[in-house]
Amino acid sequence: VPLEAGILQPSDKEELFSAPAANTGDQYHLSTLEAVPSGEPPDPKTCSPRQFLEYYIFPVLLPGLAALLHEAEKEEYLKAKRTTFIPSDFLTEWLYNKNPKRKDESFTELFSIPFVKDWLKDHPRPPVPLSLLLSEEEASLLIQSFWRGYRVRCDSEIQELRRWQKKLREERHITKIVKEFWTKQEAKGN
C-alpha cells in the first residue's frame, strides 16, 4: 500500500474537522472515520496489528480526537498562553464514557473514574494557579483593591496610627496577654 493512500486528503480533512452537527450534543460528523471496515471483525487476540487498529481502536479513538479538537477550539486552547483545559483529561473522560462496554451507564466525570481516583491518590496534582481560575474582571478587581489598600497604607496618618498600635502592643505585652488568655481557656476545657 503506498504511503499516500494512508494520508488524509483535503476532503477527508474537511469531514474530520467539520463543526458539530446541530442538536447532537458531543456527536461529531465523522462518517468516513467512524465507519468500521466491512466484513466480520477479526479475533482481537489473533489478528494483525493493522486489523486490530482498524476494527477496534480507530473507530473509537478518531471521533475522540475530533471531539478533543473541537473542545480545544471552544476553550481557545491554541490561542491562549495558559488555560485550565487539559487535553489528556478531556480525552480520558471522553474515551471512558464512550466505551462500548459502558453504553448503558450514565456519564462519569474525570475525577470519578475509578482508575483516575487510584492514580491521583499516589500522584496528587498541584493546585490550579489562581490566575487561571479568575476571570479578567475578578483579577482586575483584586488588583485594584490591593492597590487601593497599598495607597491607603502609605498615607501619613495611617502610618502614624500603625506605629501607635505597634508601640501599644509592645508596651502592654498584648501578645503575651492573648497567649495567657488562650492557655487559661484551654485549661478550662480539659
UniProtKB/TrEMBL annotation:
It comes from the Eukaryota. CDD domains: DD_IQCK (cd22969), IQCD (cd23767). Coiled coil: none annotated. It holds the Pfam family IQ. This is IQCK protein. The gene is Iqck.
